[in-house]
Amino acid sequence: MTRINRRTFLRGAGTALALPLLESVSLGAAERPKRLAFLFVPNGMSMPDWKPQAAGSDYTLPSLLQPLAAHRDDFLVISNLAQLNARALGDGPGDHARSAACFLTGAHPVKTAGRNIRAGVSVDQLAARHLGRSTAVPSLELGTEPARQSGNCDSGYSCAYSSNLSWRTPHSPMGKEVQPRIVFERLFRMGPEGESGAARAERLHARRSILDYVRDDANRLTKRLGVTDRRKLEEYFTGIRELERRIDMLEPAEPGDEIHIWNEPVEEALRAPPGGVPRDYRAHVRLMYDMLVLAFRLDRTRVATFMLANEGSNRNYAFVGASGGHHHISHHKGDKQKIEKIRRINHFHAEQLAYFLGKLKEVREGDGTLLDSTAVVYGSAISDGNRHNHDDLPILVAGRGGGIVQPGRHLVAEARTPLCNLYVSLLRGVGVPTERFGDSTGALTGL
Fold first, then answer.
1. Which pLDDT band holds residue 263 (cuts at 50, 70, 90)?
2. Would you say the C-alpha torsion 63, 64, 65, 66 has a positive or negative sign?
3. Do 158 and 37 belong to one domain?
4. Are 171 and 263 in contact (CB under 8 A)?
5. Whole-angstrom Cα distance, residue 13 to residue 298?
6. What does the DSSP 8-state code read for residue 21?
7. Domain of residue 305, CATH code
8. CA of residue 247 relative to chain centroid, distance
9. What angle do CA 382, 384, 385 make, to 5 degrees?
């Protein structure tokens, strides 16, 4: 059987298509990458429907965790974690902005709507400084709603706080990409060096598949592979074609005026169609999850964040029977109809998480799966959206992170244990020497 280097790429006209892990690649446990993904949902949770009653492995799944029933042995629910720096601490209202800014930094943001924003370096960026040395994309920042970097979005707090999770420095959020086409382009770096704007526009408008550019190289490789690897490669190509088809289908006819790629300059060709944000939110979320699975599968990145919506988002979820703005109905004041709508929204997000975990489990890697090598943190820095409290947060960790996490349990930490203790454990688990992070008091016991 022909031996294939794991870093082999299929190449063609300015495109390098990474290969999935094939049978021809021997990959020992020590070589398997460890990966981190941080998923954020806004406006808190219906906590009575989220938190299990019993600790340990013998607990009953609450209604909001029922969509994850098929993955029960693959996730850990953690109760009593807190982000106390998201509290006012004398700064008055603005819990939504503080919660997003604090979620991955553990820092209390400076209250300002001007340019003098300050939070802290986020856990994903600390991990990326270590894990990113081995990948083409050090970290991937995804979302579904654009990030505004200026203006007043929450009681005197800059919009930069409520629309960003990832912070490269205390003063510099990483921003996020919301357009699937641009994420796809970045992952595959399509286009030769020096490609003109006109040529790039022509290529994008032609909607040619990336597989068209690497077809000759793919045919040469296929002849060298065994039957099992040929089948794996064909399945992979089919998945790429399907992803491209969905991007084409979901792109709006009239995309927005401008796009921004990770704070990098954008050439004029990428301001023109095709592009834009899908109008179907449900399809948009799943497409971004699929893009994240692909990025991990190809080892293009090992660190990612995904904001399912900006904090304080007033998105309408009428498609699940929850009409009205999400933020507005989260202030339910005990109204049973609004509480039911919040449950429906939370349930919808849990369904999308189940989809993501299922996709990670489908990808074999060595004698395990992509989920086995990944630690997925899912949650919010607001507990009850009506109370705006930041203790006993809804936090779930899925996957095993290459041995970092023992899933299949409900872990009850001591009251008001810093969420940053979890981050200390994760950073140490992926090889980043960490004594303290944010307001941590040490590593999380029992992870």
1. very low
2. positive
3. yes
4. no
5. 20
6. P
7. 3.40.720.10
8. 18
9. 75
Query: Measured on CA atoms in the order 341, 342, 347, 349, is the torsion positive or negative?
Result: positive
For the four alpha carbons of 216, 220, 221 and 226, in that order, the dihedral sign comes to: positive
Tell me the one-letter amino acid at 126. L
What φ, ψ does residue 427 adopt, rounded to 5°?
Answer: -60, -45
Give the three-class secondary structure for 255. coil
Q: Which amino acid is at 391?
A: D
Written as six digits, the tokens of 127 are 């991990």
How far is 156 from 151, CA to CA, in rounded Å? 9
Please choose, from the candidates 175, 177, 167, 163, the residue with its C-alpha nearest in 3D space to the C-alpha of residue 118: 167
Q: Decide which of 186 and 439 is more confident.
A: 439
Q: Please check whether residues 18 and 122 belong to one and the same domain.
A: no
Structure tokens at 373: 């090598």
Query: What's the rounded Cα separation, in Å, for the pair 66 and 10?
Result: 41
The Cα–Cα gap between 374 and 404 comes to 9
Q: Between these two residues, 30 and 362, which has the higher pLDDT value?
A: 362
Closest CA to 425 of 401, 408, 407: 401
Give alpha helix (H) positions in 214-309. 215-222, 227-250, 281-297
- Looking at the fold, whether 222 and 264 belong to one and the same domain comes out as yes
d(CA 379, CA 396): 6
* Total of domains in the chain: 2
Cis peptide upstream of residue 274 (ω within 30 degrees of 0)? yes
| pLDDT per residue as tens digits for the range 282-301 | 999 999 999 999 999 888 89
Short-list 228, 308, 190, 197, CA closest to 24: 228
Locate 336 and state its tokens.
């049973």
Give the span between the Cα atoms of 31 and 19, in whole angstroms: 17
Task: State the angle between helix axes of 227-250 and 180-188 in degrees (0 to 180), rounded to the nearest 10.
Answer: 140
Q: How far apart are CA 276 and CA 259, in angstroms?
A: 8
Domain-ending residue, one of 248, 276, 304 = 276
Q: Residue 357: phi, psi to the nearest 5? A: -65, -40
Q: Are residues 41 and 84 in the same domain?
A: yes
Going by pLDDT thresholds of 50, 70 and 90, the confidence category of residue 438 is: very high
Domain hosting residue 225, numbered range: 1-31+180-276
Q: Which of 38, 100, 68 is nearest to 349 (CA)?
A: 68
- Give the Cα separation of 213 and 349 in Å (integer): 37
Query: Which amino acid type is present at position 444?
Result: L
- Written as six digits, the tokens of 161 are 């706080």
